[in-house]
Design goal:
Shape: globular
Strand content: over 45%
Number of domains: 2
Largest sheet: 5 strands, antiparallel
Distance between the termini: 17 Å
Helix content: under 10%
CATH architecture of the largest domain: 6 Propeller
Structural class: mainly beta
CATH topology of the largest domain: Neuraminidase
CATH class of the largest domain: Mainly Beta
Number of strands: 37
Radius of gyration: 22 Å
């Protein structure tokens, strides 16, 4: 873990902050169509320096699921790997990762109707196990979204078995080896569709679009016991226009949701957050303002840094745009960042982060047919120590890290009441020092520091705060891979 740089609470959102985006990289090259999935699920995931991408590809005469990885944080890419092999269509893949275990879900027509399927790799994408059929009914099961916390894998999708689309959930508690029964999450006579799922420890968060109110609104549901039981539905939007295609992510107790919304006469990107793990929700925040359509957002978070990408038509054709918040969604950069620039369509972006690197994948038709493209910003996710509040605290304090347990990143917050030499160290369970996160003279204020456990084994760790060499406090944290 390298020491980061200090970013003061009064951030300057200048063009230079976004100047590190590198050139577009074409990941596929064949005369057939290659597509990323809808925004409710992520087509990209990362763990440490290993980045995983999935997509649907027609090079074989029908849609199949393909996979590609980078082991150097997106600088280079290995060959394509075909994950499915049948004569029917396999669509809409979603990927997540926990350490070296990669989980992929998709919808598949091999059984005569669309069912949800699953596949995993236990060696970081080198080899893959067999396909596992997760659903078994005569109706359509589609648009799955997957997330993972340690060995507990959570999958949601929409399902027509009840006569209309309802949201269903399924989990595995042994890393995808076996699966429990389907759980129906919604129960109404109108369409509930395109769910998105995320997890922090044992708290699972699901959002979806729902037509029960006469137009599409966003709804939310959570489980606080790892998917065993579920709370009531919560309506997140209230307006007479459509609110659609949500994407959700979480860091500790702060839940972030983005979606496309037509309340302004055209589709714009909106954002909403909960700072208490989904119990209550703040106001809607409009992220885009232009006369053209902004569609299909995807969101990810690292500590207090929130990253959003979407498809935007303000340039007369579809381009990929990006925006971030450095303070957990309280404020947003004044300028949208345009990531693509060509006369053909760029669509359905998906975003993830690993360390300081922001990774974006999308499909692009600049080559005459849709191909998969990738772009990265190696410094777009500032890690290290961040001064989040320059108000002077009345005492020194060390907070519990969040999330906890974590994989592989967690945030540690502490307060400094006057200017002192401040040291923050991490130790393993045997008391051996494994990392020094901070060792410098700090001004009074509240600070956050990111700890990246990618290079450390699962287990219990301790972090300790020293002021002028004197131990002030220590706390325990748990890394689960």
């Amino acid at each position: 873990m390298k020491k980061g740089f200090i970013i003061f609470s009064l951030f300057v959102h200048s063009v230079s902050m976004f100047a590190q985006w590198q050139l577009d990289v074409r990941l596929t090259n064949n005369p057939a169509n290659s597509y990323t999935s809808f925004n409710n699920a992520w087509c990209i995931a990362s763990s440490g320096s290993v980045v995983h991408i999935v997509w649907e590809d027609r090079r074989d005469g029908n849609d199949e699921i393909y996979y590609k990885r980078s082991i150097d944080a997106g600088e280079s890419w290995e060959a394509d790997t075909r994950l499915t092999n049948n004569t029917a269509a396999s669509w809409n893949p979603s990927v997540t990762v926990s350490g070296s275990v990669v989980h992929v879900v998709w919808r598949d027509d091999r059984d005569g109707n669309y069912e949800t399927y699953y596949k995993r790799s236990i060696d970081g994408g080198v080899s893959w196990g067999t396909d596992t059929r997760l659903t078994n009914n005569s109706a359509v099961s589609a648009y799955p979204s997957v997330t993972v916390s340690g060995s507990v894998v959570h999958v949601v999708w929409h399902d027509l078995r009840d006569g209309n689309n309802e949201i269903y959930y399924k989990r595995s508690i042994d890393g995808g080896v076996s699966w429990e029964a389907d759980t129906r999450l919604t129960n109404n006579t109108n369409d509930s569709s395109l769910p998105s799922v995320t997890v922090s420890g044992s708290v699972v968060h699901v959002v979806w679009q729902d037509f029960r109110d006469g137009n599409y609104e966003l709804y939310y549901k959570r489980s606080i016991d790892g998917g065993v039981s579920w709370g009531a539905d919560t309506r997140l939007t209230i307006n007479s226009s459509f609110s659609e295609r949500p994407s959700v992510t979480v860091s500790g107790s702060v839940v972030h949701v983005v979606w496309q919304d037509a309340r302004d006469g055209n589709y714009e990107i909106y954002y909403k957050r909960s700072i208490d793990g989904g119990v209550s929700w703040g106001a809607d925040t409009r992220l885009t303002i232009n006369a053209a359509e902004s569609w299909s957002p995807s969101v990810t978070v690292s500590g207090s840094i929130v990253h959003v990408v979407w498809r935007d038509e303000r340039d007369g054709n579809r381009e990929i745009y990006y925006k971030r918040s450095l303070d957990a969604g309280v404020s947003w950069g004044a300028e949208d960042t345009r990531l693509t620039n060509n006369t053909s369509g760029s669509s359905l972006p998906s975003v993830t982060v690993s360390g300081s690197v922001v990774h974006v994948v999308w499909w692009d038709s600049r080559d005459g047919n849709p191909e998969i493209y990738y772009k990265r910003d190696p410094t777009g996710n500032p890690i290290g120590i961040i001064n989040i509040n320059s108000e002077i605290p009345n005492q020194f304090s060390l907070s519990q890290n969040y999330p906890n347990p974590f994989n592989p990143n967690t945030i540690i917050r502490f307060k400094i009441k006057d200017s002192r030499l401040t040291t923050l160290k991490v130790f393993d369970v045997l008391g051996r020092e494994v990392s020094t996160l901070v060792n410098e003279q700090l001004k009074p204020g509240t600070y956050e520091v990111d700890f990246d456990g990618s290079n450390y084994p699962s287990g219990v760790y301790f972090y300790s705060l020293y002021i002028n060499g004197e131990l002030r406090d220590s706390k325990k944290m748990v890394l689960i891979k």
